[in-house]
Structure formats: structure tokens, C-alpha cells
């Protein structure tokens, strides 16, 4: 009887240890998916990001901002913003830089401001000023599509 209880206790400890290890593994896997891939592949070194991207971004006081952003391999950009139904066009050029993970860029505006984008396959997704993903009902409106 004593041997049976000892075996049950040992099995319980072993099972408990396996459960903890498994949940730790799952938590680690979840965070790895949210950050840069550990094999060294990033948007910066794996995607054909040097291109022209277009889309109509939301606007607080107009029908939208038709945006064309060209990213060049020398880390410079050309930006054209056309405010629809307002007859206002803004064009500028400057530089941009990658974040340390190689997943998003910051476009340094001529007025001292900046734009942030997550670089995905064939698209740029606008980020908020803190570099966080824009969520909510208009989230899909904050995408610039790569042009052929």
C-alpha cells in the first residue's frame, strides 16, 4: 500500500511538472509570434519593401487623404497626400528609418512630425504615434497597398 501511494505521489509530481513546462512553452511561443522571427528574417531583410504604396487614409475633416508613399533602398521617401474634396495637395521627400526589429518604419516629416508604418507583404499598415497597431472599425482603412 505504501509503495502504491509513493508511486501515485511521484506520478502526480511528474504530471504537474509536465503541465508547467507545457504552459511555459505555449506562453513563450505566443510572444515569439508577436515579435521578430528568431531565425533572423525581418521585413527589412526579407521583403521587397522598396516600392510605391497607395491608399486613401481616413481624414477628420475631409473625405479621405489619397496617399502615395514611395520608399527607396537608400532609406529616403517621396510622399504625396491629396486631401479629397479640399483641393489641397502636400508633397515632400525626406528620410525614414527602421525600428531595431526590422518590422516597421518611421517616416521623418519635413515639419518635424513623423508617420509610423508596419511593413507587411505587399502593404504598409499605419501605426499610431506610439507605434501601436490601429484597431477598431476603421482599422482596415489604414493600409497602403504596394503598387505593381
From TrEMBL:
Pfam families: NlpE. Residues 1-19 form the signal peptide. The keyword Signal applies. It comes from the Bacteria. InterPro entries: Cu-R_lipoprotein_NlpE. Keywords: Signal. This is Copper resistance protein NlpE N-terminal domain-containing protein.
Amino acid at each position: 500500500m505504501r509503495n502504491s501511494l509513493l508511486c501515485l505521489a511521484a506520478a502526480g509530481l511528474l504530471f504537474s511538472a509536465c503541465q508547467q513546462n507545457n504552459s511555459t512553452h505555449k506562453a513563450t511561443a505566443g510572444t515569439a509570434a508577436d515579435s521578430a522571427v528568431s531565425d533572423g528574417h525581418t521585413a527589412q531583410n526579407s521583403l521587397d519593401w522598396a516600392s510605391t504604396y497607395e491608399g486613401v487614409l481616413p481624414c477628420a475633416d475631409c473625405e479621405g487623404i489619397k496617399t502615395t508613399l514611395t520608399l527607396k533602398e537608400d532609406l529616403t521617401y517621396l510622399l504625396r497626400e491629396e486631401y479629397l474634396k479640399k483641393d489641397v495637395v502636400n508633397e515632400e521627400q525626406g528620410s525614414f528609418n527602421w525600428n531595431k526589429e526590422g518590422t516597421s518604419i518611421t517616416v521623418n516629416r519635413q515639419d518635424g512630425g513623423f508617420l509610423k508604418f508596419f511593413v507587411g507583404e505587399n502593404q504598409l499598415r499605419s501605426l499610431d504615434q506610439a507605434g501601436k497597431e490601429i484597431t477598431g472599425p476603421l482599422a482596415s482603412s489604414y493600409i497602403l497597398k504596394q503598387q505593381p
